[in-house]
Amino acid sequence: MSRDDRRNHKGRQRNRGGQRQFSRSAPSQRSRRADPARLVAFRVLRAVALDDAYANLVLPAEIRRAKLDKRDAAFATELTYGALRAQGTYDTILGQNVDRKLTELDPPVLNALRLGAHQLLQMRVDTHAAVNETVGLVRDQIGTGPSGLVNAVLRKVGEKSYQQWVDELTADLGEVEALALRHAHPTWVVRALRQALKAQGRGEELAELLAADNAAPEVHLVGLPGELEPTGYEVLTSAVEAGAQLSEYLEGAAVFRGGDIGRLPGVAEGVLRVQDIGSQWIAQALTSPTVGPGERWLDLCAGPGGKAALLAALAAEYEVHLQANEPTPHRAELVQKALSPVPQQAWSLRTGDGRTIGELDTDFDRIIVDAPCTGLGALRRRPESRWRRTPSDLAELTVLQAELIDAAAGVLAPDGLLAYVTCSPHMAETLVQVEDALSRHADLELLDAHEFMAEVALPSGAELVQPQQNPTGEVAAKTVQLWPHIHGTDAMFFALLRKAPV
Predict the structure, then answer these.
(1) Please, how many CA atoms are within 13 Å of residue 417, restricted to the half-sphere of its CB?
(2) 183-211: per-residue pLDDT in tens?
(3) Which of 254, 274, 294 finishes a domain?
(4) Of 71, 145, 208, 364, which has the most beta carbons under 10 Å away?
(5) Domain check: are 222 and 120 in the same one?
(6) 260 and 305 share a domain?
(7) Rounded CA gap, 327 and 347, in Å?
(8) DSSP code of residue 101
(9) Which residues, 6 or more positions from 27, have their beta carbon under 8 angstroms from its beta carbon?
């Protein structure tokens, strides 16, 4: 048949025969509505970008709002955390495929591209589905205009695997820069973690730590001790029946790997709580030496209340009193709620700046300063923090940490114990901070925190917190640095100081 034979009487070309096939990428065939699970992830990324929200707080509410079933909720969770966690690496890859600077893109479009990149490169999502559904999300939530750009960019991204992109982009980089891109951490954070590991004699474990930071964290549970209703023993037993496993390191703790925490007995009452085992461990270590009658304890930075609740429950058992302090009113409300399961006579709450704690005109026998910090030890749980924090944050935070230590030292009773804690391994917030505190306060003595951690641990836990053989200096030798890749906890730092007796 000649070319002219396929034209009708008006000169228009006729169909060549057979069933007509439409391109999958044709606009008329593309999804124009957002898939509910992907829409949840998009909304969380928007809240993180626009409101400085934390994904772990926003995501559960968005999942409930969308009424996602268990499968879609798991998909939305993986997509949200994955896109946030690897944001810097995805932005580098996207930058190779966009004809302008990423900063020139509207933030919602960039968020959609990150979600699409994660589906293409790190999830078991068909390439067509990843592109098509992301384009549908853009058309539904942003508009038709940017959908063509998103479609074109994601098709280019999908031409290579994640490994191929990383290998190509790290080919000419130095070791730290390559590790930063490969493991999706800012370069300055990688340098800080390397320095902290070296101080603890673990310099060769950097890649292992970075990989652990990117693993989905387990949920740690604590059953509050004491005569509560229900009891901590009862709620932990119920949690085990629901699939949790008792911790191998610490009594009263459990690990939960799946399911809805809110449905476990004791959660509604506040007796069963989500709390990192490292945090539980440190709180128990502070109370491990013999508790005397009438002791007064202080949690100087109590919000949002996890450690305060555990300390208050222990205080009730020992028939002593915990003073909780929190400067921010809305966080003080969270502390109040966390403390509510514990008998009121065991605790009290002050809303005020911790640096003014001396206004109470009271000395305390045990004080914990869980100081505000960069949070670099909890990057598994708050993946957006790695891209939100900057080195400039350290200047303000380290000044505040020093002032809180000084305030605590000022109200520490003779022979009293002061625990300095951060959820960051950055040396400026840990070893340097303790060294400076010792130089300012000649009446403070640094104790070996490993001994107190081991005292409250189960046998396997006691073995895990033995001092390193080659730390750099006395402070590193006597303080405990927990690590995700070793202890399965957040990277918490713990120093224990004692004030000289009169």
Answers:
(1) 26
(2) 999 999 999 999 999 999 999 999 999 99
(3) 274
(4) 364
(5) no
(6) no
(7) 17
(8) -
(9) none
